[in-house]
Write a structure and sequence with these properties.
- 41% of the residues lie in helices and 12% in strands.
- The chain has 277 residues and is of the alpha/beta class.
- The chain has a single domain, classed as Thiamin diphosphate (ThDP)-binding fold, Pyr/PP domains (Rossmann fold, 3-Layer(aba) Sandwich), CATH 3.40.50.970.
- A five-stranded parallel beta sheet has the order 1-2-3-7-6, sandwiched between helices. A two-stranded antiparallel ribbon has the order 4-5.
- α9 links the parallel β6 (207-212) and β7 (233-238).
- α3 crosses α9.
- 48% of the residues are buried.
- It binds thiamine diphosphate.
- Thiamine diphosphate binds next to α2 and β4.
- The site of thiamine diphosphate has 19 residues, from α2 and β4.
Length: 277
């Protein structure tokens, strides 16, 4: 059951997450900042309203599961887990430094509250399908949410998993595609066209819900619908890569970016994020 959290509260949390993403990028000297900013609203809504997880007991068997298949966005995921209380917020200062538990890609053996180690794209959906079947066999009524990138959808394993999700009628599986329309080296529609993505998803036997993934009200509406639907369900979350900092928005070079080492540059981004609604 989603908790009773207002859109205004979620928006404030998403802003806090964006601030943590840019601060963590600065401390780490570089990172997948554009990709992380695009999915910040969705991650916030999941962790602060929808996912039924227990910070005191991360291995609780009945919990909802979340798999960040676009694992290069640990830069958003780890700060989100820290804000939720799974890990100390101070540890973000060491993100991706030698000896830190938190690298550019998440390691579930080292991160409290992390359900799957990811980073090699195309694995989240197959893992999610397996988890979902396992929960069903045990009679546990928990959601399994997988977030992939859109470029990542070019990996065939996602579609094999989608086929299996329909066959096994995985009512609790939710696939979220962060549709920021850019991958590592250009627009998805130039590199390997995905459209009509909604029709493809539906043809694989999944209900498709669309939303503006950088508009918290719309994110909330889409997740509420997905939570109430007997799945498998897919949310195509239309976003902007780098959302929150104008200079990064839609710039493929900010897929993996660096701010340099002058804190004054970082302050410009912090001010912009703070000034936005
Ligand atoms: C199997 C595999 N191949 C290549 C990579 C390198 N890689 C990291 S991110 C990325 C692009 C991902 O694009 P997209 O799925 O659109 O996600 P976005 O960063 O735009 O959110 C690639 C190719 C990888 N992590 N895994």
């Amino acid at each position: 059951m989603p908790s009773n959290v207002s859109v205004a509260e979620l928006k404030a949390k998403a802003k806090e997450l964006r601030l943590n993403i840019v601060e963590t990028t600065f401390n780490a000297t570089s990172g997948h900042v554009g990709s992380s900013l695009s999915c910040a609203d969705m991650l916030t809504a999941l962790y602060f309203k929808y996912l039924n997880v227990d910070v005191a007991n991360p291995d609780w068997e009945e919990r909802d599961r979340f798999i960040l298949s676009k694992g290069h966005c640990a830069l958003a995921y780890v700060p989100c887990l820290a804000m939720k209380g799974f890990i100390p917020i101070e540890s973000l200062a060491d993100f991706n430094k030698t000896g830190s538990a938190y690298g550019m890609h998440p390691d579930s053996k080292k991160i409290r509250g992390c359900d799957a180690s990811t980073g090699s794209l195309g694995h989240g959906m197959p893992i999610g399908v397996g988890m979902s079947i396992g929960l069903k066999m045990k009679g546990i009524n928990a959601k399994v949410v997988v977030m992939t990138g859109d470029g990542e959808c070019q990996e065939g394993s996602n579609w094999e998993a989608a086929m299996a999700a329909a066959k096994y009628k995985l009512e609790n599986l939710i696939w979220i595609i962060d549709r920021n329309k850019l991958e590592i080296d250009g627009p998805t529609e130039e590199v390997m066209p995905l459209e009509p993505l909604d029709k493809k998803v539906e043809a694989f036997g999944m209900k498709c819900i669309k939303c503006n993934g950088n508009d918290m009200e719309d994110v909330d509406r889409a997740l509420a619908e997905a939570w109430e639907t007997a799945g498998p369900v897919c949310i195509i979350s239309s976003t902007t890569k780098g959302y929150g900092v104008k200079k990064f928005e839609g710039d493929v070079k900010m897929h993996y970016g660096s701010f340099g080492d002058d804190r004054k540059d970082l302050q410009v981004y912090i001010d912009e994020i703070n000034a936005r609604g």
